Amino acid sequence: MKTERRHRRVLPAAVVGAALFVAACTSNETAGTRPTTPTTVAAVYPPTRDCELFDAGHCLFPFPSNTFTRPDPATPTGRRVAFARGSMPVNTSGVAIDPTEWNRNDGFSPGGPIVLYVRDLDLAVTGAPGLTDLARSLASDSPIVIVDAETGDRHPFWAELDANAPPGQGALLIRPAVNFQEGHRYVVALRNLRRADGSTVDPSPAFAALRDGTSSTDPAVEDRRPAMEAVLATLEAAGVGRDDLYLAWDFTVASTQNLTGRVLAMRDAAVPPGDTTSPPFTVTSVTPGEPGSGVLRVVEGSVQVPNFLTDGGAPGSVLNNGDNPDGVPTVDGTLDAPFVCVIPTTAEQAEPIDVLYGHGLLGSRFEGRGVGQAVGDELNAVVCATDWIGMSAQDVGPIAGMLSDLSGFRMIPDRLQQAMMNMLALGRAMQSPGGLRTDPAFQRADGSPLLGRDLAYVGNSQGGIIGGALSAVASDWDTVFLGVPAMNYSTLLQRSIDFDDFAPLFNAPYPDPLVQQLNFALVQMLWDRGENNGYAAHLTADPLPGSPAKKVLVFAAFGDHQVTNWATDVMARTMGLRLRAPGLADGRSPGNPPFWGIDTIDSFPYAGSAYVMWDFGTPAPPVANVPNRAGRDPHGQGRDDPAVLRMVSHFLTTGELIDVCETGRPCRSVP
Predict the structure, then answer these.
(1) Which of 87, 355, 634, 642 lies 20 to 30 A from 588 at CA?
(2) Residue 42 or residue 456, greater confidence
(3) Are residues 472 and 444 in the same domain?
(4) pLDDT tens, 326-339?
(5) Do 411 and 482 share a domain, yes or no?
(6) Distances from the Cα of 44 to the Cαs of 28, 31, 66, in angstroms?
(7) Distance between start and end Cα atoms, the chain
(8) Is 118 contained in some domain?
């Protein structure tokens, strides 16, 4: 459904060069250097209570951990994240990340990675569950175990070593195959870890003392003993003994209220569910379509939205939440969210469907104009779009500058949450009896409206990654198409060619590969507030207050270079989508089996939420945390495929998935 032939956003050379120059000029004599193997925690950080005890590669490792929370009866989980600034990653200028925004959380990301360092670990010799054998993570003898302490159930995952790090310096990354339950406490156990020669990796003295019940002269170890006994008891109840443990600990997942409460409060103030009142709007231009183009007219204007950001909502602004511990912002005036709408010629003869469109990576609302011009007439859809501020063209400069000190990372998710309000306001204006349909720009010659009665959300790429979050809080539509989407940027970034332009800016200020992986995990805790990862569990079931459950069609392109299929699979499991089967031809996917844990559709037309994988002939994605660079990038190829467009059109107008592919065979469009 995209019209742009290339979707990667290439940063201007001057921006990249300037940011690297700043990082280089502000580094001190020793900043950024690293020995061949990590030093002990005590050698890098003072042995204080702000650091973990287990010499796992960084003060905050293993991450996440309840060690870095404190009791708080005011939160839904009963805990609050409590990072000390002295524990946080330090950039090459010697500045530690300010943990203030992280410490508003009552737990950790529901989909973020578990990160630590194990010297000399060989995952293959250990027999650890990999991405291609997820069922192994639930086996009784799995060397890595994750247990839901609330239910006693084991949680599926995969383990990988960071393929981007120099040999011997790669973090161990443990990623959930389906998101963790919000508000639940989990226990992680590692046991029988092996080196390449088959020898066993020994635990740290601190953990061995706790595991074996032997005394320690370290008061911090003794202080930890009661909490560790609770961890070990949970494992023993789940059938995991303590004798062969290398390490075990627990962490708490952020609550639903903590993840979504800001946006819900903002929504209720800006675009209340059940209220049909249109926000104020202004039409600034009306451009007739070219003869034969299928476009009747292009309308530009703006909707007025309550502003929850500082600095009038300018690029670089953050939520106006001051010292509010729960992070809910207050309104500071209004802002005008610009929009563009494309009205097809078919709308003059038949009532169209209204489409709210979400653009791709660091793009703008004008991508919606391109989509409307390309397929609006074919779908009989009025396509309207506004900017995804926070991750739009206007944010490129502030993002590039912020990456030198991740203390300011909140800028991205904060502005994305305001962008959701802008999107909701535009959708309300499209649907309201007193909205856009009252303006002559959106009327036929006889004064009847050119807008339809049904509204759907369509988002591609970044618009799909953020669009599920938006739709989870929306009350004005219940049909959602997400094209080439996924969730969880901490998984996506290093598996995307789009990160090529940002990796130098992200890595230069934090050159230690272990710290880089910690940073991915840290920023995900904030990013959850503005992307699918924090909302996926509430999109198709268990809906959030004021928002009906949605019917969702997810379309993926096999071997996608920009949005890895592995993260789309995790999203499909978390959302409870059913797969159009067979998803791929035998042997195409390295997964054993492919699409593990995703149920299939029994018959068509299908009225539930669905996952369709389309094969354009690109080689399979790598298993490691690196991008797919093989073959032709299929990321945008579905936009021109008649069968794909027919499938999408039927879904948007009826809410049903029809099978447009050959029965019993995978969906393929191979040159």
Answers:
(1) 642
(2) 456
(3) no
(4) 899 999 999 999 99
(5) no
(6) 16, 12, 22
(7) 19
(8) yes
